[in-house]
Amino acid sequence: MCLGVPGKVVEIQENPLGMTMGKVDFSGIVKEVCLAYTPDVQVGDYVVVHVGFAISKIDEEEAHQVFEYLKEMEELAELDIDQPE
Amino acid sequence: MKFIDEYRSEADTRKFVQAIQKTVTRPWTLMEICGGQTHTIIKFGIDRLLPEEITLVHGPGCPVCVTPLELIDKALAIARRPEVIFTSFGDMLRVPGSETDLLSVKAQGGDVRMVYSPLDAVKLAQKHPDREVVFFAVGFETTAPANAMAVWQARQMGLKNFSILCSHVLVPPAMEAILGSPHNLVQGFLAAGHVCAVMGYWEYEPIVEKYRVPIVVTGFEPLDLLQGIYMTVKALEEGRAELENQYVRAVTREGNVPAQKLVKQVFQVCDRQWRGIGLIPNSGYCLRPEFAEFDAAQRFEVTGITAEESPVCIAGEIMQGLKKPHQCPVFGTECTPEHPVGAPMVSAEGACAAYYQYGRK
Ligand code: SF4
Predict the structure, then answer these.
(1) pLDDT surpasses 80 at A3
(2) What is the block-wise mean pLDDT of chain B (361 residues), using blocks of 10 residues?
(3) Which positions ≥6 away from B185 have C-beta within 8 Å?
(4) Interface with chain B: mutation pick from A66, A68, A78, highest number of B CBs within 10 Å
(5) Which of B43, B145, B183, B331 is least crowded, fewest Cβ atoms below 10 Å from its Cβ?
(6) How far is the CA of B124 from the centre of ligand 1 (A)?
(7) How many CB atoms sit inside 10 A of residue A69's CB?
(8) How far apart are CA B54 and CA B28, in angstroms?
(9) Domain ranges of chain B
(10) Which CATH superfamily is domain B1-356 in?
């Protein structure tokens, strides 16, 4: 139930009660999602969706962090780069 | 798929495993809090890639597993009422109560429906004004904003036939309960990334201080988990008790402020029973008095609940990191996903289900 899934916002609309709703594309499956908690998202942004609600916008710049961390470790020679196989 | 596939790279997995091997010098026990993370770990065999010094134990972050038995029995009683449409996330439908489960109630004619979002339950209430729609509002901080919004919307719409059976639980008090136990084995935590996406991670600062444990906010893909494990092990080896954030692409220190705001408007902190673990003070959310009209527990009087737990199930010990699923005497024999004896065998987040599904014996 805590599994949030990343998806791409493809549509944003206000519902009659003033709650921002939208459509999010999860690799081809498009679902209706409540965007009320991510007021700054734009079409094209990626969000983490949990039980029909976007709970967080994915920061595209920070998304490289894991790989930069690995690169730094390699540069600091904390890793032997013996790539097996 | 973007933001998934790149975090499953085998070459990068190997690099992290190597880095962990080079860092570790003695045994450490880490706990991942979230059941979603448990599933990734077992599915991708991350625990088997790690050096033997590192033991991963699986935390209580499975909402289905910790929802108290009394409440499941209450849900079953409400779902049997002819005027009720009982709605729930799919995971809850097969959780064993004392005698039966929601799916069986459905088979016997109860109107039990699975919904994807609590807003779907609100829609049902709007569509069926002559019926009572009840939503089984369980979950951690991650689900609270959704459930708060459902109640809020129901009020905006003036719905009189919508209510929630609420059993929200909170992560930080559970971590404290684990750390404060004299039997505790956990030396470092991977905090649940999506709980933190909502709540931020400032709440963990006092825990790090008080118990001197490293906590790393961690995501859900294999590389996230490996980086989280690496950061925790490095902190332990260097004798640092610090709070760090691995999951920077989705989590900030302050979390999702609009979500926290609505959650606070609708819910208040209360003591909560955790199935298998017991009462943990201030570890749950219940509806504020202003929203009491949406409380299904008050709306439907239920009596005669006995709440009898299976005597063999060791789920509580598993969720406190004291035992592993295969140490349960009925794991995979009497207890299987088809015939679950305890809740962790049911859910997509339960440790027993993960061990069973991926063939761990
Ligand atoms: S295997 Fe079944 S009975 Fe044993 S601890 Fe897990 S859920 Fe409980």
Answers:
(1) no
(2) 85 92 96 93 94 95 91 95 95 89 95 95 97 96 96 96 96 96 96 95 97 97 96 97 96 97 97 92 97 96 81 93 94 93 88 92 72
(3) B29, B57, B321, B322
(4) A66
(5) B183
(6) 35
(7) 18
(8) 5
(9) 1-356
(10) HypD, alpha/beta domain 2 (3.40.50.11740)
